[in-house]
């Protein structure tokens, strides 16, 4: 997905770049959320299940393929905008491989949403809070997690082997046994063990697809 033509070139002589506007489908998602929050009962009823409305700050809720594509385009522009407008030291650059880092996807979506909402404010308080807390906290967390990885090219997930161990069948079984032991300590009356329906049962996760396996 190329968005290079949709952001100013690095040689652009403008002193500042405007914050990227949400793409059309993302804008529609925000309009529907605004109606859900402030619309008339009739307007709200037309939206259907409000819990099913996509939230751009939660990418996993944007299940429509066109909306999801638009969201990625917008976040890509926002990442480039932040790097140009707010990052001076190379250690603070959002890496170009950010879509391959789930933690950056989750955080960038919230960062973009919070910045977008400052345009609705009638005072400078929200943008001051974004400058003082939201953006610095994001950059600090990113630096702490990324360390020196992905400085020149994308690095494979260093914690992958530990994650695979965490979701492996032996470790899932050990946790299940620990939970069952904890449940056996519960009692309905002092000194009387509770009658339990059975030990909780966990699923093993396929590390490639994220699918829960029985």
Question: What does this 3D model show about the protein?
Answer:
The chain is mainly α and 214 residues long. It has two domains: 18-146, no CATH class; 160-184 and 198-213, no CATH class. 49% of the residues lie in helices and 4% in strands. A two-stranded antiparallel ribbon has the order 1-2. Strand 3 (204-205) and strand 4 form a beta hairpin. Helix 1 (24-38) crosses helix 3 and helix 4 (102-117) packs antiparallel against helix 5 (125-146).
Q: What labels would you give this structure?
A:
two-stranded antiparallel sheet; two-stranded antiparallel ribbon; disordered N terminus; 2 domains; globular; 4% strand; 214 residues; mainly alpha; single chain
Short description:
With 214 residues, the chain is mainly alpha-helical. The protein is 49% helix and 4% strand. The model is unreliable at 1-5 (pLDDT under 50).
Note the topology.
Elements: H1 24-38, H2 41-46, H3 65-86, H4 102-117, H5 125-146, H6 160-166, H7 169-184, E1 187-189, E2 192-193, E3 204-205, E4 212-213
Antiparallel strand pairs: 1-2, 3-4
Roughly what percent helix? 40-55%
Strand order of the largest sheet: 1-2
Structural class designation: mainly alpha
Give the averaged pLDDT, no decimals.
83
Count up the helices: 7
Low-confidence stretches: 1-5
* Broad shape: globular
Radius of gyration of CA atoms, rounded to a whole number = 23 Å
Number of DSSP E strands: 4
The tally of structural domains comes to 2
Span of the ends, CA to CA: 36 Å
Order of helices and strands: HHHHHHHEEEE
Largest sheet: 2 strands, antiparallel
Tell me the strand percentage band. under 5%
């Amino acid at each position: 997905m190329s968005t290079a033509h949709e952001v100013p070139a690095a040689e652009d002589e403008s002193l500042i770049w405007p914050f990227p506007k949400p793409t059309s489908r993302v804008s529609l998602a925000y309009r529907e959320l605004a109606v859900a929050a402030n619309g008339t009962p009739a307007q709200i009823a037309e939206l259907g299940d409000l819990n099913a409305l996509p939230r751009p700050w939660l990418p996993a809720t944007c299940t429509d393929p066109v909306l999801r594509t638009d969201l990625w385009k917008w976040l890509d522009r926002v990442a480039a905008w932040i790097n140009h407008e707010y990052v001076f030291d190379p250690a603070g650059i959002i890496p170009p491989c950010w879509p391959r880092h789930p933690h950056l996807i989750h955080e960038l979506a919230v960062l973009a949403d919070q910045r977008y909402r400052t345009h609705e404010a009638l005072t400078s308080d929200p943008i001051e809070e974004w400058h003082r807390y939201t953006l610095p906290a994001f950059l600090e967390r990113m630096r702490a997690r990324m360390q020196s990885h992905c400085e020149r090219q994308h690095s494979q997930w260093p914690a992958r082997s530990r994650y695979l161990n965490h979701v492996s069948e032996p470790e899932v079984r050990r946790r299940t046994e620990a939970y069952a032991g904890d449940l056996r300590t519960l009692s309905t009356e002092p000194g009387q063990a509770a009658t339990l329906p059975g030990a909780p049962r966990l699923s093993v996760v396929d590390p490639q697809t994220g699918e829960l396996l029985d």
